[in-house]
Amino acid sequence: MIDPLFEEALRILTFQSGFNSAVVVAGTAALGLAGGTVGTFLLLRRRALVSDALSHATLPGIAVAFLVGAALGLPERSLPLLLAGAVASGVVGLLTVQALSRFTRLTEDSAIGAVLSVFFGLGVVLLSVIQNLELGGQAGLKTFILGQTAAMAQGEAIAIGLLAAGAALAVALLFKELRVLAFDPGFAAVQGWPVGALDLVLMGLATLVTVIGLQTVGLILVVALLIIPPAAARFWTDRLPALTLIAAVIGALSGWLGATLSALLPKLPAGAVIVLVAGGFFLLSFLFAPARGLVAAALRQGRLRLTFAERRALTDLLDGRPVQGAAALWLRLRGYVRDDVRKGGALTPAGQAAARAAARDRRLWERFLADYPALLPAHANWGVDPIDSVLPGDMVRLLEERSAPS
Amino acid sequence: MQYLWRTPGSRTAPEEASPIGTPPLEIRGLTVAYHRRPVLWNVDYAAPSGGLIAVVGPNGAGKSTLIKACLGLVPSVSGTVEVFGRPIAKQRRLIGYVPQRESVDWDFPVSALDVVAMGRYGKIGWFRPVTRAHKEAALHALERVGMADFARRQIGQLSGGQQQRVFLARALAQEAQLYFMDEPFAGVDAATERAVLQVLRDLDAAGRTVICVHHDLQTVSDYFDHALLLNTRVVAQGPVARVMTPDLLSRTYGGRPMPAPAALGALGAEAS
């Protein structure tokens, strides 16, 4: 039962399951790559939700385009026509958001909420109307809502791949311009960069990714391809080039794995499967990324607390103060004390050395703090690490002379 | 959002420092209103060539708005702004800008050097990457504010004062003739205050003009040559000795008793 499924999965993943399936998987991966690349700047420019309004606003356009096609007597649904309709109404939705937040006192998030729901509602109504008309070829319309990789024809998959690569290339070309736009648009404008036009390019790229992702991922979830990969990548790095690359890789992997999974499980909506895979990457990054992940941060914090607790317990013992509870147990585990520490117990030779080092560190750091407060910001980890590993040797000697008990 | 409809500025026009005698900045009849409430009202001002100029006034007096309107970052209701005798869109290369520190997201994934290199983008031009020469210019600007050791640091890991110095270095990297700075001394530590002041004096010595929004009345006379007292309209302008008087300050601050700088007597200068 499992084995054939597994083998099938392996075949699709390695592009050996027939040309058509390979093209669809590669096309979806390219879509994910473009989503991650464009999405990085969308996220940094704080435009992620605007693109959600955009994608929901495509539905009435798709429905109207379908009706136009039927009125023109086209035999079956024509994908270019439907996508043109999607772009048109998506852009109208986008402009409505811009106009509402510019010319009224509505905040951008209220404008987004209003446009998103009204346009989507209109689209749903139009779809019901179409259903009652009993026209041919309408079955495919529903796939635009939740997505279906199987609906992708070979030529379409190739077109998606090419467009996605073009979007990623545009971001690479405009990397410097988009960086200053996202970080400090006011400064960019003062330098003479056409901030409005750059914003239009960015939203245009987001529109492109959204529209080519409509069929595969569906208009409800396509925004996830723009948001989740860069959000996940943010946990891994503090550098923009790396961030963009990691987001592109996470996006591509999500598309690749997601398309494979949905080929194996054709009853599940493809968009949801792809987004769940991306969500998995987000969860992994959030928890385990070494730079900003939850576990790494907790470990760093825990180690810091432990270091301080240990040093304090050691210096307490050195000064003849009793140490109790968990700290006592910890010192024993480290081999710094002999058994009965609660009765004022004795430090082992190793404990003696560690305690003297801790006391010296504290004394010297205090001296440094008192004598050179202006130098502190330059030493981010002052007071935490052993002083010899942070400050230059002659400075440490100077502090030792000054803090020697006279 | 607010920049979306801005007409792209001309980047191809020849940009030259101006003929002698043209003021670095000339504002005529500038009025800015938010929702029909004037924030700046009929501002006329001609900045003297060279020197450090403080824009002084109470909260909500429109100090930052004045700078932003000069730079074309907020739309004006009426009025003209000229930089060295020409509209600002044609003089972008001559302008350096230090925005308020709070105006950006410091968690942004860039290093201090990346931010300072942004000051070079205008010289680099479209599509081209930041070359080594430009990175070196950026590093040199960081050195001038005493931040070379932090070039690789992510900007979120810097202290507030260090972030302010990064912004200042970015403006230095622009190699401008006229600098606009929005509260460069706000909330900084003593080391940063010294560094900023040193940079201002260097710029002054090199013949540059610097216009600073400044909030600390006590230091205006020590740090600056000229002052523009602003409260929606221009209350007074001129050399600090002439305008930083108790009378003019109290008029600027709406009659509330203000701490006057101790060094200043009642010189009784009038608004020009």
UniProtKB/TrEMBL annotation, chain A:
Entry keyword Repeat: no
Main location, first listed in the record: membrane
Parts of the chain that traverse the membrane: 20-44, 56-75, 81-100, 112-131, 151-175, 212-233, 240-265, 271-295
Subcellular location: Cell membrane
One GO process term, biological-process aspect: transmembrane transport
Membrane topology of this protein: Multi-pass membrane protein
CDD domains found in the cross-reference section: TM_ABC_iron-siderophores_like
Key words, A-Z: Cell membrane, Membrane, Transmembrane, Transmembrane helix, Transport
GO terms for cellular component: ATP-binding cassette (ABC) transporter complex
UniProt record similarity statement: Belongs to the ABC-3 integral membrane protein family.
Protein name as it appears in the record: Manganese/zinc/iron transport system permease protein
UniProtKB/TrEMBL annotation, chain B:
GO BP terms: zinc ion transport
Tree of life domain: Bacteria
PROSITE patterns per the UniProt record, alphabetical: ABC_TRANSPORTER_1 (PS00211), ABC_TRANSPORTER_2 (PS50893)
Cross-referenced Pfam families: ABC_tran
Region (Disordered): 1-20
This protein's UniProt keywords: ATP-binding, Ion transport, Nucleotide-binding, Transport, Zinc, Zinc transport
InterPro entries: AAA+_ATPase, ABC_transporter-like_ATP-bd, ABC_transporter-like_CS, Metal_Ion_Import_ABC, P-loop_NTPase
GO molecular function: ATP binding; ATP hydrolysis activity
Domain ABC transporter as annotated: residue spans: 25-257
Family: Belongs to the ABC transporter superfamily.
UniProt protein name: Manganese/zinc/iron transport system ATP-binding protein
Organism: Azospirillum brasilense
